[in-house]
Amino acid sequence: MEPDQVVKKARADMQKALEHTLHELNSIHTGKASPSMVESIPVNAYGSSMQMKEVAAITTPDARTIQIEPWDKGLLQEVEKGIQTANIGINPTVRGSTIFCPLPELSGDRRKDLIKISHGMGEQGRVGVRAARRDAMDAIKQLVKDKAISEDDQKRLEKEVQSETDSFVAEIEQHLKAKEAELLQV
């Protein structure tokens, strides 16, 4: 592997870890309706399991309601069943060919639980970033061992990788703080 590719690969791997963490954090229910809360719920459709976003239009008509309209009206019961089985604390109601999911008010204890869950997700993100750093450091050590780069280059590359790591971890922390503030907001 080329020396410059080591840093590029590490940056790409860290970006993937960050994006995954952000997706996970966005799925946490904060009392404000968001399509991402239900879009990955599995629905039994046409003999296989599909994600909600693949079988229905998901909108938020107001801050406390998620509206789901299956493209195939025959899937109405399956979509409703999928939401109930997902056990995300939402009780769907069917009106005509549309499913309405009013979001319940979050209790103080539930908010604290969700903050703990979001911190766990943040830690998983940091672990992913650190794993990318470890892989990059191993690749740099291998380049030195193979005499492909000098010790000065090794130090420079290690500094670059550490700098990337610090910036990605800081970004995860920033998003975690924002999510915590959102959860504490009544």
Automatic annotation (TrEMBL):
This protein's UniProt keywords: Cytoplasm, Protein biosynthesis
InterPro entries, per the entry: Ribosome_recyc_fac (IPR002661), Ribosome_recyc_fac_dom (IPR023584), RRF_sf (IPR036191)
Which residue range or ranges hold the Ribosome recycling factor domain?
Answer: 23-184
Query: Cellular location of this protein?
Result: Cytoplasm
**Gene Ontology CC annotation, any one:** cytosol
Query: Which GO MF term does the entry hold, naming one?
Result: ribosomal large subunit binding
GO terms in the biological process aspect are: cytoplasmic translational termination
Q: Which domain of life is it from?
A: Bacteria
Task: Specify one Pfam family.
Answer: RRF
> So what does this one do?
Responsible for the release of ribosomes from messenger RNA at the termination of protein biosynthesis. May increase the efficiency of translation by recycling ribosomes from one round of translation to another.
Family the entry assigns:
Belongs to the RRF family.
Q: What is this protein called?
A: Ribosome-recycling factor
Recall the taxonomic lineage recorded for the source organism.
Bacteria, Pseudomonadati, Verrucomicrobiota, Opitutia, Puniceicoccales
Supply the gene name: frr
